[in-house]
Amino acid sequence: MLYRYLLFVRFALVNIVAVALLVAAYLQGWLDGVLTAYLMELSAVIVLVFLYGLVLCGAKIWRHSVELNEVKAGTPNSRSRAGRYLSHVRGAGAESRTLHAGALRLKLTDRIAGVRHIANSLIFMGLIGTVIGFIIALSGVDPEAMTQVENVTAMVSTLINGMSVAMYTTLVGAVLYVWLNINFRILVSGTVDLITTAIELGETGGGA
């Protein structure tokens, strides 16, 4: 098998390219606004959630790569989902095989659902940051104080700080959502490949 870990290689290449683009953006100074933004801690929280999701996604992709290699070689691990499925359908009737195939789909799909939820949470966290930013911006606006020149500077400063929180947290959440979602699509394709390969092997009586 020339491409035993093709799924994980795709994951690695996507993230190497993404990190390279991130480094290039940093060197160009495009990230300076994010790194110096008011209440940068909000963006940092989003980044930490993203990193957790990326590590989780990578671990699942590696696990699927290993299981896929074993199933394609006809020697599935008896402790894996695919291995247990093949042991259950060996010698079973058509109705029983159908039930076990459905259970396999549900279990493997449920295994990857957490990554999708984390990716979706990045968008919501970005929107929360947007709301917080607008609250900060509007909290500094006092119509009665605007008639006094010495108060305008403080209000403008608060307004700018609030808008920076709103814009940068939205940007960070959206970009990291796209990044993690691309990796999730790789995980989904590997899950589908694992399911179809295991079911085909079970129907042909392989994996014995």
Overview of the molecule:
With 208 residues, the chain is mainly alpha-helical. It has one domain. 81% of the residues lie in helices and 0% in strands. The protein has helices spanning 6-27, 32-35, 40-72, 81-89, 94-139, 149-203. Helix 5 packs antiparallel against helix 6 (149-203). The chain is elongated. The model has no long low-confidence stretch (mean pLDDT 88).
Question: Which helices and strands, and how do they pair?
Answer:
Layout: H1 6-27, H2 32-35, H3 40-72, H4 81-89, H5 94-139, H6 149-203
Helix pairs in contact: 1-3, 1-6, 3-5, 3-6, 4-5, 4-6, 5-6
Number of helices: 6
**Oligomeric state as shown:** single chain
Shape: elongated
CA-CA gap between termini: 20 Å
Number of strands: 0
Domains counted in the coordinates: how many? 1
The major pleated sheet works out as: none
What keywords describe this structure?
208 residues; mainly alpha; 6 helices
